């Protein structure tokens, strides 16, 4: 296993065997690999690094040793850390680009974090817009638009906090925001059910534009509509990150160990991690990419171009004003001064 820092490329075998999953056939022709860009956002200690490694099934980044008490009063600024991992999922090669955001939410005022992330997302749209307008296309252009933002919610068991609402509201129109309950093993099953309900109530009450699975009523395909209905009912996904891999009856099982027992990361009865992974890298990878292109980017493009058009109309008007002023003056009746 190799530690990843900066822009790194890791290729390693998976630690557990894959179950063949439907839905990925759409992109099987992508020989070079299907690029898929995800961003991880959440406060320090919620398990972003562990999630990244669990998702990639290898040690991409070595988790921190935890905060240093002597440095605890210093709020490190947020950074964007890039990791690239090549994966094979159900016969499909995926180039997974992960943008981690350590330092998010560490300050008292998180406005600058919100702005930085929004600017980052919009800058990727701007690159595509500039590329579209080029006369000669760059054949090596890399589309770095973020297809999904995994937002880690603190497992308080209460409801969404202001920081959660603000962030998801701000970014939901710029990327597919997928909220997850981080470290969900810290809640009892009953607490988890209630917490999920409260979060979904808040999402509806505050009109937060998170990614949702198509409404079964709107789906033609029975198989998809059944799956989407099931996934809708699971939201937000409750995730547990892998601490170690143990051998159980000759097969590797990813777990977290406790004095009272073991949580199996990929067991649907213990955590929604496996379903989320399946959604991201298999069943809904196409939907996430399509929505980024057809809805979110189009919305941004329209806003940007109409904003530019309005700005240039304003500018034109200002430039014309001196002439109009002269014309208006000329049209005015003159008082003849003797
Ligand atoms: N109980 C529990 N602990 C977890 C889980 N995921 C990670 N942890 C632990 O939480 C601590 C922090 O995990 P990290 O993955 O380093 O968290 P992070 O969000 O990347 O934190 P920073 O690197 O400080 O930004 C570690 O001790 C992990 O073992 C989880 O699902 N459940």
From TrEMBL:
Residue ranges of domain Septin-type G in the record: 32-307
Keywords in alphabetical order: Cell cycle, Cell division, GTP-binding, Nucleotide-binding
PROSITE patterns in UniProt: G_SEPTIN
SUPFAM superfamilies, alphabetized: P-loop containing nucleoside triphosphate hydrolases
Compositional bias of kind Low complexity: 309-332
GO-annotated biological processes: cell division
Organism superkingdom: Eukaryota
Spans annotated as Disordered: 1-24, 308-338
Matching InterPro entries: G_SEPTIN_dom, P-loop_NTPase, Septin
The family this protein is said to belong to: Belongs to the TRAFAC class TrmE-Era-EngA-EngB-Septin-like GTPase superfamily. Septin GTPase family.
Database matches in PANTHER family: SEPTIN
Protein name (database record): Cell division control protein 11
Species the sequence originates in: Coemansia umbellata
Lineage of producing organism: Eukaryota, Fungi, Fungi incertae sedis, Zoopagomycota, Kickxellomycotina
